[in-house]
Amino acid sequence: MPENRVTSRRGMLFGTAAVSAGALLTACTSNDPKKTENTASSQPAAADDKPGTPVTIGFAGPQADHGWLNAINQNAKSRAKKYSEVTLEITEGSNDTAAQIGQVQTLINKKVDVLVILPADGKALTQVGLQAMKAGIPVINLDRVFASPQAYRCWIGGDNYGMGFNAGTYIGQQLKDKPNAKVIELAGIDNLELTKQRTQGFDDALKNFPNIKKVARQAADFTVESGQAKMAQLLQAQSQFDALWNHDDDQGVGALRAIAQAGRKDFLMVGGAGAKSAMDAIKADNSVLKATVLYPPTMSASAIDLARALGQKKGVAGMSELEIPSSITLYSAVVTKDNIEQYLPTGFA
């Protein structure tokens, strides 16, 4: 899961976002339960659907070695195909910062109209973002933020603090009447800022429920294997608890395997990100997994909408301003059995 920025976290409360994605972008998550396509290509456009000035968008992301990152790439491609006047120049993607810098520089040399960049490392790619902006190519900075606001025209990404806060609030609501309730946390990679933000949000939410205590926390690596190994350790150390929050649905696949192997059914689990496997489990309602908190990969589709609007000198539908915003933080919705049909089409493999 991508690393996010500290400055975008402004103490968002449950039910709010720094900028309402629903008001800003109709491109994000479709709310039509009848839709079955799990890419953003079938969703309404952000600016307008009428073909305008031809725009060439350069897209540079990291290597798609995680379900969420693969969904980022697929949503960007699908969204670009929606517009007959948009040409998408997409790089192969790399987790090597030097390689990604070279890929972005190639797009700059091709003189694309707008760049969409999800950097492998925001700090390391700041200079190439500045290079593009100085060359007159506006940059949409996707999720992992550059170190300087001068390196991008608009930032759009997820809400890691809100993700943790909403997970904690949901668990708190489920356990509010249980005396001396215990919860545990299966976090992501501890040296990532996003992991710290998710944990902080979770802890802050639990402060609103004095009957609940977090008794254990273990960090994994966003992989199935690490999720299974770290969850097995937690289960051995904690003979009894009431709820688990897992930061990432990919590692959650492994966590669920460990839980099944241990024969444990005595607690509820909340996942994170919104993978299709988690959505399917929530709908089936035959495991401890009862909810997942979204970190929408549709943000890349919205980034294409924003890039198109920039290239055509348009604003965003639903807003009065002539320019696109400078920053958009997406909301981390909690998906449960009660609203699963609404969000199921957005689940990613």
Automatic annotation (TrEMBL):
Region annotation (Disordered) ranges: 29-55
UniProt keyword annotation of Signal present: yes
Keywords: Signal
MF terms in GO: carbohydrate binding
Domain Periplasmic binding protein: 57-313
Localisation per UniProt entry: Cell envelope
Record-given protein name: Substrate-binding domain-containing protein
Source organism: Streptomyces beijiangensis
Lineage: Bacteria, Bacillati, Actinomycetota, Actinomycetes, Kitasatosporales
